[in-house]
Amino acid sequence: VLLPRSGRLKLTVLSEDRLQMKWKETEGNINGYKVRVKPMAGDSEQEVMLKTKTPKATVGGLSPTKEYTLQVYVLNGSQEALFAKRKFVIEELKNASQTRNNRRNSGAASGKNLTSSGSSAAEHSGVAEATPPPLNTVLTQPGSQFQCDTSAMADIILLVDGSWSIGRNSFKLIKEFLSNLISPFSIGQDKIRVGLSQYSSDPRTEWDLSAYSTRDQVLEAVRNLRYKGGNTFTGLALTHVLEQNLKPEAGARLEAEKLVILLTDGKSQDDANLAAQTLKNLGIEIFAIGVKNADEAELKQVASEPLELTVYNVLDFPLLSSLVGRLTRVLCTRIKEKSPQLSPTDLKISAVTSKSMHLTWSPPLRPPKKYRIVYYPSKGGIPKEVVLDGAVSSLQLSNLTSHTEYLVSVFPLYDTVAGDGLRGVTSTLPLSSPRSLRVSELSHNSMRLSWKAAQGATQYLVLCSAAPDGAEDYTTEVKVAQPEVLLDGLSPSTEYSVAVYAMYGEDASDPASIQETTLALSPPRYLSFSELSHASVRVSWEAASPAVKAHRVAYVSSRGSNAGEVEVPGTATSTVLRPLSSLTQYFISVRSTYDEGDSFPITGNVTTLKVPPPRALKVTELSGNSLRLQWEAVAASDVVVYQIKWSTVGGEKPQELSIAGNVATAVLPGLQKNIDYKISIWAYYKDGARSDTVSVQHRTNSRSPPTNLFVDSETPTSLQVHWTPPDGRIQHYKITYNPVSDAGAQQTVSLQLFCSSVTLQSLLPDRAYKVIISAIHYTGESESTSTTGRTGKCNSQNAHVLHNLLSVSLCGFDMMEAFGLVEKEYSSIKGVAMEPFIFSGSRTFTLFRDTQLTQRTSDVHLFTIPPEHTISILLRLLPETPKEPFAVWQITDEDFQPLLGVNLDPSKKSLTYFNHDYKADLQEVSFDQQEVKKIFYGSFHKVHVAVSHFKITLYLDCKKIAEKPINTLGSISTAGFIMLGKITRTRGPRSGSASFQLQSLQIVCSSVGAEEDRCCDLPALRDEETCPTLAPACSCTSGRPGLPGPPGPPVSSPFHAVYCTHWCCFMLFGHVRH
C-alpha cells in the first residue's frame, strides 16, 4: 500500500471562481491523482471530482465566499490513498495574498512562501495536513477580515446569557466575540438588522432591531453593553424574543429572514425546548453557542437543523474567538441561501444531444447586469466561459464532446458584486449506436444482419472478421446506407465477429457487435416419430434450407438384423418405414443432401409396439349346438393365422381351431346347452410374433319356450291368450296367429317380456285361429309352442264387426272410456256433445267451456304412472277455445295442485309437459317449434308425448318434432284427481275449463311405439296402401251368408287399450303381409 508522504499544497486564485492547485509529486509508480473539492457540510452545492496524471489541477465554478475542503488522493491500481488535505475560501486566499504583497513591498516579510513580485495572480501556500491559523487572529489583521458581501435582508437577534455564572471578566470576552461576529456583515435598515436581549432570571431587551442603522452604531452598542446578572432561564428568554423582539413594532420585517443566536454558559432552569420549537415552527432559525458548563444536549434540542452548522460548544470563554471565522461564514451562507434575490434559480438542462444542450434559468429578483456561464467536463478539461446580457436567461451550448459529463455554473454579475452561482451537471448523449443488432437469416455460406436505425447517421460501417481453420484471417468491410446487410461467400461452420458502426460524417459511434457461426451443411431439424405400430413408424423432420436436394433416412435394429435406407426428395418432410419387427428398438438417422455434399445426420431411436391381439370379441348362438365367434382384426394384413381354443369352465379337454389371417369369424361346433365356456383367441404374425391371448366367457342357453299355452275369453272379434314364461333372460315374445283356414292371413306381433297374456282383437267371428308363441332370448329365439282357439258367433243378424288387421296394441288406459266419452255414455255428461261425423271407427266429442270433466284417480284405477309412458291425444282447437293456457289432461293431488299433465298455450302457441321428478321437484319441458304452432290453427292433429327415464320426445301428426332431456319421473299420488281442459290459472273442481274437440286420449306405459304410428286415423294423412283395410260387415241368418254389407269403420288408432293382468305390459305389433 502506498503510504501518504508529507507534501505541500500550493493554491493560486486565477479568478473569482477558479483555483489552481499544485503539489509535490510523490515517489514510486502510481497511476495518477484524484482531486476532490467538497463544499462545506450542509451546502447544497455539488462537489467537484477530477483525475489527473500530473501533480496539478484547475477547478472552476467555485463560490468566492464559501468554504471548501480540498483532498488529493494517490491512485495505485484499484486502491487510492489520501495524499494531502486543505480547507480554503477563495476570498480569504485573495485577501491573504494581498496582505503578503503589501508586506513584501514594505520589506516586512521574508521571501519565504511568497509569489514572485511580477505575479498578477493571488497565491496561498500551506502544509498539506496543517490546520489554518486561529480565525480571530485573521479577523484582526488589516485587510484580511472576512466580509459577507450580500444585500440580502435579515433580522438577527443576539440572545446573550447574563447570569452570575459568567462573571464580569468573561462577559467582556463575550462582547469581544459579538463584535467580531457582527463586523463582517453589512448592517442597514434595508439590509441586515441586529437586535440584542440579555437574559438571566428575566429577559431584558438591550436594543430593538430598528434601533441602529449602521455597523458602527451596533458595535458601539455592544461595547456599552452592561452585565445584568441573575439565574439562567433560557425558555423564558426565547419566549421574550418571540413576543417582544420579533414584533413589527420592534423593527422585525415580514420579508426578512430571521435568525436567533443564543449564547449561554449553563443549563436552563426552565423548559427551553418548547419555546425553541415554537420559534422553529415559525421558520425562525436558531444558532446555539455553549460555553464552559453549557448542556450540549440542550443546545441540540434548541438549535435548528442541520446541527453541525447551528450548534457550537467551547470549553471556556477565551475559546469563543476560535468560532468567529466559521460561524460568520455559516451565517453569511445561510442568509444568502435564505435570500435568493441575487442568485438565479431553477436551472434546467434540456434538449441534450451528443453535441449540445440547452440551458434555461429563472432570473434573480434583482436583475443582474450580466451572466457568466462556465462549463467544462467533470473529469478534467479546460473550462469555457460565455458572458450574456442580464436580460437573457437561456443559452445553447454547442460543439460539446459526446458521452461526457459536464459541470455547468451560471453566475449573475452586478456592478460591484457577483451573485452566488447556480450549478448543474448533466451528460451529453453518446453518438447513437445501431440497436437490436441481430442475425435475421443464417445459412452455411451467408448471414443477413439487421438492426434499428440510429437517428442522424449518414451511413453504417460493417466489419466482419473470422479465422477459419487452416486459413488466413478473413476480414471484410462493407458500407451501407440502410440498417441491414447480407454477408455472403462465407465458410460453413465458421464463427464470425461482426461490428456495426453508425457514421456521423467522419465520427463513428460505439459499435454494436455480435458473434455468429455459419451453419454446417444444415441437417434436418425436429426429428419426431408418429403412427407407431408393431411393423411401421412414420419419421418426420423439418428441412433446414431450401437448398436441400434430397433426404436419406437410414434405420437399423438394435440387433443389427434389420436395416435399410430410404431416399426422398428434398421437399419431403416425412416417410413411413416398413416392414419392421415388433418390440424392436430401431436407430434412425436423417441427413440432408446438398450440392456441396451431405449434412451431419440428425438421429433418434424408437421401439416398435407389441403385435396387437384381436379385439371386440362377439359370441352369437346359432341353432343347434354351435356358436359364432366374431372379432375385429387390428392388423389383418400382417396376421398369418388365428388360433382359437375353447373349453368348458369345468376343465374338460379343450378344442382348437385355426383360421386364416384374412378371416374374422369362426363357427365353434359341438357345444352343450346351459354350460359355461371359456373361448380364447390369439394371432400369429409374419415376423413370428404371437399376440396376447384374448378370452371371453359364454354360457350356452337352451332358449326354453313359453309353456301352458291356452286360449279363453272368446268373443266374436277377440281371443285372450295365456302362457307361463320360461326361465332365462328374455327380451320379448313373438306371437303369430292366423285363421286355420287361411294360412296366408298370418300376422305377427311382439310383446314385452313382462306380459303373460294378451288379447287379440279385430278377429273374424266364428273362426278357428292358430296361435304360435316363442320367446326371444338374449341368446336367440326359442322353439315355438302353438294352440288353437275359436272366436264367438255373431249374436245379431245386423251386427257389424270391425274387420281389420291389428297394427299396434299397447298396455295402458283409454281416457275416453274413463270419462264416459263413448257413444253409449256421453249423453249423461253435461257440457259434452258428440259430433255426427265418424272416421276410423271413432267418434268426436266437443267439450264446451267450463265443462270441467273431473274423475278421482282411484276411480280410473290409474294406480301409478310408470317412468316411461306416452300420452297420445287426437284433438282440435275451436275458434272459441280461450287464448289463455289450459291443461288438456292432468293429474292433481287432493288440493288440486297439478302433478303431471300436458298444457297448451294458445297465446304463445306452445305445448308444455310437466311432472314431478324423483327429487319431488317440478320440471317443465316446453316445445314452441314452428310445427307445434299447427295445433292452434283449427285442424285435427295427433300428438304423442313420449317420456323415458332421461328424455322426452314430441311427435306431431306421426312426425318427430323435437327431443329434450328430462329427469326421471317420481312417484305420483293416486289420492287426487284427473281433469280435462283445466284452465291453468284456476284451482278447484269447478273453476273453469277450455272448450275443444277430442277424438282419442290414451295413456300408454311405454316410451316406444309412437314412431310406428302412421296416423291412419287422420284423413289427411291416411295412406290406403300401408294402413289396414277396413273389415267387412257380416250378418248371420239361418247359418247362411247373406249379401256383402257396406264396409265397416277402420280401427280407430294404432293405439288400443289392452287390459292385462298387471300394470305396464304392452305389445308392439308388427305387420306381416297377407
TrEMBL record:
Start and end residues of each Fibronectin type-III domain: 5-96, 343-432, 433-524, 525-612, 613-704, 705-797
Gene Ontology cellular component list: collagen trimer
Chief location of this protein within or outside the cell: secreted
SUPFAM superfamilies: Concanavalin A-like lectins/glucanases, Fibronectin type III, vWA-like
Cross-referenced SMART domains: FN3, TSPN, VWA
Highest taxon above the source species: Eukaryota
Domain VWFA, residue spans: 155-327
CDD domains reported for this sequence: FN3, vWA_collagen_alphaI-XII-like
Keywords: Collagen, Extracellular matrix, Glycoprotein, Hydroxylation, Repeat, Secreted, Signal
Chain intervals with Polar residues compositional bias: 96-122
KW Secreted (keyword) present: yes
Region (Disordered): 96-142
Location of the protein in the cell: Secreted, Extracellular space, Extracellular matrix
Entries under PROSITE patterns matching the protein: FN3, VWFA
Function (record text): Probable collagen protein.
Family as reported in the entry's similarity comment: Belongs to the fibril-associated collagens with interrupted helices (FACIT) family.
Protein name: Collagen alpha-1(XX) chain
Organism: Calidris pygmaea (Spoon-billed sandpiper)
